[in-house]
C-alpha cells in the first residue's frame, strides 16, 4: 500500500507511552518507506534525570537537542531510490516542549535561542500526526512496558507534556498538524482501529492545525 504521494515526510508524535514508535514501524512496513526512530536508549542522562530532574535536566535536554539534530540532518539528506519517503516517530519540536517543562526560566531562555537556530535549518514534515491520549492512558501504557527509569513519571508531568504540545501546535502556521484522540483506540490489538488511524493519515489535510476528538 503506497503512502499518499503528497506526504513524503511523515512524523508521528505523542506523549510518553502513546504508541508512536509502534505506529511508525507499522506505517513504514505497509508503505515500504524509510524509517527514523528516536535514539535515546543509551543516553546516560535519562536515568539520572528521572532520579534527580533539577540537577540533570539541562544536560539531558542539550544532549537530546544535539542527538535529534544530527539524526534528522543525516537521514533527511539521505536518498534511497528503493525506499522513497520517510516516516519518523518524533518531531524536532519535542525538544522545545520538554525543555519548557524541565528547565528553569534562565536555562530555557538560553535553550530556546539554540533551538530556533537549529530548527530553522531542518525541513518541516509534510504531515505531523499527534496521538493524543489522556495522562491516565499514557501512564497505564508506561507501566505496561516496564522501563525501570520511567516508573516514577507522574500524571501531572504527562498532563504538562500534552499541554506543551498543544501550545506549540497552536503557534504553527506552515505545517499540516493533525491531533487525533486515541483514548478509545487500540491500534496495536485491533486491526479495525489501526485502519481508522491509517485512513486519517492518508486523508488530504490542509496546512494548519486540525483536531479530531472522536473517530467513528
Write a compact overview of the structure shown.
This protein is an alpha/beta fold and 216 residues long. It contains eight helices and six strands.
Please describe what this structure looks like.
- The structure is a single chain.
- This protein is an alpha/beta fold.
- The chain has one domain (9-212): Rossmann fold (3-Layer(aba) Sandwich), CATH 3.40.50.
- It is 49% helix and 13% strand.
- It is built from eight helices and six strands, in the order βαβααβααβααβαβ.
- Strands 2-3-1-4-5-6 form a six-stranded parallel β-sheet, with helices on both faces.
- β5 (176-181), α8 and β6 (208-212) form a beta-alpha-beta unit.
- α3 (53-76) packs antiparallel against α4 (94-102), α3 (53-76) runs parallel beside α5 and α4 (94-102) packs antiparallel against α5.
